[in-house]
Recover the amino acids of this structure.
């Protein structure tokens, strides 16, 4: 992607001419080395380092306007699998703290299990890097707050890697989110609205991401640094089912299908309801009692906002003929079907939603916030984490969207900032 900023100033060109050593060492010079915000790399490409190069991390090596210059993983097999698809000379690490010190890195892409997302995002921002993080943004509400603070304190750009608020067909709706946002903004459905996310509106909660109780203790594979894989999570003896793809079934690292798919499904709802700076005031849970270690399934989760809007997560596929969005004036069904007569003609009279920056390279080079950033990403991740806290505790909860804490529930509030295993802190 060609830079869209004004041409570099003379002082910057003078700096580059005088920096013979720097030019010899790097084909891509980090933006901040050249004078901080407002400068772009001399190359058309930004440099990227990827932490976690399992299948998810390897799937994101190619991105417009970027070049991978370093990777990190605690499993030597992942490093070996990644290197053939990368340029020679890419640096490899076992410890991400060494990777984020590299002066030649512009963007740090975090593709680890979620219990690492918050710490790594904060450390990368503190090191002066822009951050691209996989979903869910953080494992806890408190970690999300810290990521926001660090990103904004250091003037970093942040991208959360779920994209349905701005591109691609949105599951069962048969359209991108843009016309849904336009419909909601038009008022044709009325207010407040109820959104149902489940099997019959086109969404799979992936209940195969459940944990196993009474796991066998197994020897740690020689290629895996299990101690570093655990990181801030409580120590549990190694069992194959805890790590890599199946880690999603354990509370210490993730939260089953809700944590895996929740931000994909819920973030666009937060966007089209116009609640990017808000959170629900209550969550109601209908689920079996959860195991203390292994994530289970649930039947129904209901979030309610102060204005009466609701998000219903239908886990058991109970609602067979339910609309995706229901308001006092109309309904919207999968396939963008509605009971409002002549909807498309009526909708054409209303303005389109405000444009968004949907290229992270553009965001990094222009220093303008990405469409899904540390602020709105934290709010949509909050919805997931509010539900996970209620699910773990087995009770409905009240939430304060301003303080971002639970009301009159000490047990729930302890899960906002759970104690991390020493020496890890955030």
């Amino acid at each position: 992607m060609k830079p869209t900023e004004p041409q570099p100033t003379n002082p910057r060109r003078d700096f580059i001419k005088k920096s013979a050593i720097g030019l010899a060492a790097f084909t891509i010079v980090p933006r901040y080395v050249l004078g901080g915000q407002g400068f772009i790399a001399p190359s058309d490409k930004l440099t990227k380092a990827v932490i976690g190069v399992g299948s998810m991390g390897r799937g994101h090596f190619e991105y417009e306007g970027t070049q991978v210059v370093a990777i990190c993983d605690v499993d030597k097999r992942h490093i070996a699998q990644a290197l053939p698809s990368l340029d020679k000379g890419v640096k490899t690490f076992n410890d991400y703290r060494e990777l984020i010190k590299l002066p030649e890195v512009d963007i740090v892409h975090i593709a680890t299990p979620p219990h690492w997302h918050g710490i790594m995002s904060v450390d990368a921002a503190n090191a002066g890097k822009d951050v691209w993080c996989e979903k869910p943004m953080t494992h806890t509400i408190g970690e999300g707050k810290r990521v926001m603070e660090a990103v904004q304190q250091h003037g970093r750009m942040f991208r959360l890697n779920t994209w349905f608020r701005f591109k691609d067909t949105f599951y069962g709706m048969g359209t991108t989110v843009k016309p849904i946002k336009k419909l909601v903004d038009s008022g044709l459905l009325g207010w407040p609205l109820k959104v149902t996310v489940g099997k019959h509106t086109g969404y799979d909660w992936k209940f195969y991401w459940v944990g196993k109780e009474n796991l066998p203790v197994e020897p740690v594979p020689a290629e895996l640094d299990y101690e570093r894989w655990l990181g801030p999570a409580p120590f549990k003896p190694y069992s194959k089912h805890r790590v890599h793809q199946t880690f999603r079934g354990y509370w210490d690292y993730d939260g089953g299908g809700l944590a895996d798919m929740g931000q994909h499904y819920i973030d666009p709802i937060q966007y089209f309801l116009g609640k990017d700076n808000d959170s629900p005031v209550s969550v109601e849970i209908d689920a079996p009692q959860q195991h203390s270690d292994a994530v289970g399934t649930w039947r129904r989760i209901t979030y309610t906002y102060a204005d009466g809007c609701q998000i219903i997560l239908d886990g058991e596929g109970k609602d067979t003929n339910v609309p995706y969005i229901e308001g006092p004036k109309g309904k919207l069904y999968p396939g963008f079907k509605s009971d409002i007569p002549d909807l498309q003609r009526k909708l054409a009279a209303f303005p389109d939603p405000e444009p968004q920056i949907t290229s992270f390279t553009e965001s990094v080079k222009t220093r303008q916030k990405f469409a899904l950033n540390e602020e709105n990403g934290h709010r949509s991740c909050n919805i997931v984490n509010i539900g996970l806290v209620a699910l773990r505790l087995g009770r409905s909860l009240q939430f304060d969207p301003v303080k971002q804490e639970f009301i009159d529930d000490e047990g729930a509030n302890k899960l906002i900032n759970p104690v991390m295993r020493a020496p890890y802190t955030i």
Notes: Confidence is low (pLDDT under 50) at residues 1-30, 32-38. The two ends are 35 Å apart (CA to CA). The domain at 177-416 is CATH 3.30.360.10 (Dihydrodipicolinate Reductase; domain 2).
